[in-house]
Design a protein that fits this description.
Distance between the termini: 38 Å
CATH superfamily of the largest domain: Phosphorylase Kinase, domain 1
Protein name: Protein kinase domain-containing protein
Largest sheet: 6 strands, mixed
Number of strands: 6
Keywords: ATP-binding, Kinase, Nucleotide-binding, Transferase
Organism: Rhizophagus irregularis (strain DAOM 181602 / DAOM 197198 / MUCL 43194)
GO molecular function: ATP binding; protein serine/threonine kinase activity
InterPro entries: Kinase-like_dom_sf (IPR011009), Prot_kinase_dom (IPR000719), Ser-Thr/Tyr_kinase_cat_dom (IPR001245), Ser/Thr_Kinases-Pseudokinases (IPR051681)
CATH architecture of the largest domain: 2-Layer Sandwich
Strand order of the largest sheet: 1-5-6-4-3-2
Amino acid sequence: MISLDDKILQIIRRHEPQDFKNFAEISSEGTALVHIVDWMNTKVVIKKLVKSSMKEAINEICLTGLISPYPNIITFYGVTKLEDEKQYSLVLEYADSGTLGKYLRDDTITFKWENQLKFAKEIASAILWLHNDKGVIHGDL
């Protein structure tokens, strides 16, 4: 019988933990612990799902792998199992400007109408693509 780990590895790229250097925690809020790391001469994020069941983690890994790449969605590079960890962590594109939520909280005074419209169009475009092309409904917008 094929294990769940083997099924994941058949469809999603797995990266070795020693490929990542210079871990720096950037967030520990919510259900994930997020680190920025160096990987292949670039910065990426490793997102460790800390408050989820294995089923929820597998679901996020599979969905993230399904929807990448798209211009307005963070790129998914694969998964890794860090030392002494039981669950996989996601390897994702690093958004050096931070999250949209952080941007909105930090820059509300200077958030011009033109930028609001641009962001709304980009979000709507990504959601439309998810729904129409991938059959995915985003659960927490």
